[in-house]
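User: Hi! I have a protein structure encoded as tokens and I'd like to know what sequence might fold into it. I'm fairly new to this, so please keep things simple.
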């Protein structure tokens, strides 16, 4: 499994997704700096992310169902800390 998490929020995203979905590949990319000055930007940083995840749990699921699984795993963070999350979710063999 690969992960690009750096800060504490990114690390927590990686931890929660790993526990919930057992991914074979995971990249958590902090896009916050690209959104400086935009609505939802948090001066603490770590507010906008892209998650690229490959997991067997996504096998046979459509895009919306895959995104729901990711959102469920991160529900608390999405309410408290993360303003925006782009999700690229694939099953093994689709990557």
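Assistant: Happy to help. Inverse folding works backwards from shape to sequence: for each of the 95 positions I chose a residue that suits the local structure. Here it is:
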């Amino acid at each position: 499994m690969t992960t690009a998490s750096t800060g504490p929020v990114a690390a927590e995203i990686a931890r929660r997704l790993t526990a919930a979905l057992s991914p074979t590949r995971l990249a958590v990319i902090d896009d916050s700096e690209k959104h400086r000055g935009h609505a939802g930007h948090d001066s603490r940083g770590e507010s906008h992310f892209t998650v690229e995840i490959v997991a067997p749990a996504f096998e046979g699921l459509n895009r919306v169902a895959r995104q729901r699984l990711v959102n469920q795993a991160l529900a608390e963070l999405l309410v408290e800390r993360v303003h925006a999350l782009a999700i690229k979710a694939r099953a093994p063999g689709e990557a």
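A useful reference point when you look it over: The chain has a mean pLDDT of 87. Feel free to ask if any position seems puzzling.
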